[in-house]
Each structure stands twice: as C-alpha cells, then as structure tokens.
Amino acid sequence: MARLPADGAGALPRGRRREPRRRGRELEVTRRRIGVAVVLGGLLAGGILVSTAVDVAPAVAADEVCKPGNVVFSSERPAAFSLLQTEAAWQRSTGEGVIVAVVDSGIDVGNPHLEDAVVGGIDLVGDGERADGLSDPQGHGTAIAGQIAARKIPKSGVVGLAPDSKLLSVRVFRGTDDESKRDGFGPTTARLAAGIRWAAENDADVINVSLSEVDGSAELEAAVAAAHDAGSLVVASGGNRATAEDARDGARYPAAYPGALGVTASDASGTVTDDSIHGPQVDVSAPAQSVTTSATGAGDCVYATEAPSSSFATGYVSGAAALVAAAHPADGPDGWAYRLMATAARTDPDQRDDVSGWGLIRPADAITLLPSATTRGPASPFVDTAGSAVRPPSISVTPSDGSSAFAATSAATAFITIVGATLLGIIATAVVLRRRHRADAETDAVASDGPPRLGFLDRPADEEF
Which residue windows does the record flag with biased composition (Basic residues) (predicted)? Predict the structure, then answer.
C-alpha cells in the first residue's frame, strides 16, 4: 500500500508538526524566486520536456453552459454534500488557517467564487500565461479549486467543502489536447514533481494532485517524500479508466507513493464503479459524479455527468483533509490521512481493498475521532492498533517435513486407536481366562469332594510361585 510511511506501530508522524495557526491571519506566500527560476529554466529546456502518459479528466461540460463568457450560476448546492457530512463537519471546522495547493492547469481568479480564496501561485508551464499561475484556459484546475474552497456568493448554491481555506495555484500544464502536447505544454512528470516541491516549500498543508500516471519516476517519488517531510499531505488521483492510455487496473502515481493519500471516485450513491482504476494506490473514495463547481471564465458548471471521475473525488478529499488539518493542526500529514482512512465507511472495518480502499470518507467523523488502541482499520500513527481487529487474520501451519498437518494428525489418531484396541483385547482375554479357571476348579471340587484347588489367578497374595 502507498499509505503512511513505515515508521513502526505507534510511531509519531515523520513529517514536521505545524503549530496551531492563529485564526483569521493572512497567509503570506514565500517566493523563492531564484530556485523557481532555475526549476522553470530546466523544465523549459528541450532535454526534459518529454511527456509521459498523465491521466487528466476532461474539464468539458455536457452542454454549452460552461463556455467562457457565459456566466451562469446554479442555486443548488453540490449534490455530493449529502454524503460528506458537510453540516456536521462545519460545526467544528471550515478549513480556516489551512493552505491547499492545487497542482493543475491553473486557477481562474476571475471567477467570483475564487477571487478571495487564492493567495498566490506560480506558472511552471511558460506558455505566456500569468507568471503567478492565476489563469486557467483549460478549466480543470478552476473546477477542482471550487470544490475545495469556493466562497459563498449571491444567487449561487455552490460552495467549497472547506470554504475558509486558502488556495495556491501551481500551474503545471496548459491542456491535454494534441496541440498543447506538441508545443511542450502538456502534463509532464518533471513539472508535476516541481509543482509538488514548490507547493510544499510555500507552506501548503494539503497538496491536491488530480493527475495520475502509470510509470512514475524517482523524481516524482522524491517530491512526494520531500512534501511529506515538510509537513504537507499529498492527495492524489487513483486514475480514470476512460482517459487513461493504459486502462488496466494497477498502481498509479503519485498516489501509490508512501506519504500520499490515493483517491478513487464513487457514484452519487457512494459506490465505486469500474470507471476508476483499481489498485494498491487506492486509500479512500469520495463522490464524484455530477459535480457542481466553479468554471473558468464563467460561473458554475456541472462536470462528470456521465460517469464519476477520480479528479473530482480528489478535490473533495483535499477539502476534507483541509477540514481535518484545521481542527487538528498538530497531527501532521500522517495524522490527517489516518483520520480520513480510519473513519471511512466500509463493509469490513478491519480490511481495505483495491476498489474503494478503506471506504467513503466521512469528514465529520474524521474530525471527531479519538484515536485509541481499539480503533479498527489502518495502522495508526498515534497508538498501536495491532490488536484492534475483531476477526484476527488467518494463520496457516506448514509441517517442517512437507506433509500436511491433517495427514499427520490422522496418522497419530490411527496409532492411538490401534494401541487402545490391543490393550482392551488383552484385558478382555485375561478376564475370560480367569472365569474359565474358576469354573473348572469348582467342577473338580464337586467331583473329588475335596477342597477346591487354587488356579493361577486365584493364588493368595502372599504365596510364592
């Protein structure tokens, strides 16, 4: 599994623990301009602009409503909120004081839901868009940003799951169309890794990566590890079957790396379907069909109307992680991930699987969880939960000589039976002989009219042979 780094049962989270933030303070984004210039210059060099197959769900609506310039708002609240314990969670946390980085196609700060939510960003694409990453011609990143932190505005029911969290826009691709790829502006592993590092260096608590790839790389793995060590939780997509070049089930990256929380998509009922890639990278699921959120150059839009998409499931899990991080800032990335996994809804509390991981997230339960040795589910970074399972794992026994345990037991039973039967036969024979001798003695006594003779078994105890 690609979950909490193996620090041992009961070990404290490896990443640094942040001090609780003062509520309401403005968050200053630290720009390391020299480092960014070096990274950006390297990314634009022709030698490393080789794009691997990166899976991105299309940010295209089913109709013309979401086209830039067509500003339309929906009065309905996001449908997923009915499964996400939203009202209960908001009683305890709204994400205030938490920074979520959206490593994606950018964020359109012109959308009224987002203009007060974004506190900074960077462009790592170099295609002529804003250097601060606050533009999004493609629209994918803007939709994810709205799921996480959209502000409530008049005439719209859309609001983010963590409506008081702050956003960083980390722009790592222009689009997934052939033209973008041909011009070197499509998704690449190098830019994705650089984006994760930049987000962690600029104080992101949660890093949303609604992207996935089949092969991964040492560079990407190192970026996730560096983010974890800096105290950031990487929340990553487990993959979509429809948009993947390789639609077979199996690990997807960065979701499968230690320190990342891998996400799959469920339908409106909370059921994970075959539209998502299944595999060891899956830790939790979230609803991700008919997602109403912010649209680039427009107002609100409904995405993923035909099938659930793990990109949007990742957005909601990042929002949930922001709620948990705001409520428990000292827990660190391992603690935040653990809370979401341990409290997720599943059939068997003691087992995960490659389809839905530990189950459907329940943010309110994750916030209120009091970790203990009896908490069932994944290994805890707080206490040793090895004995929490109600049904212990099965144990197989293999005899050292290669024979089966059943055969060995059967042989022993047969031996004991034979020995017992033999002893019973000897005892029975002795009893019969004794009775026969006694009968013969009585007959002789009658015949001779003398004292009865003592048979072998009738000798007095003190008589010598």
Answer: 14-24
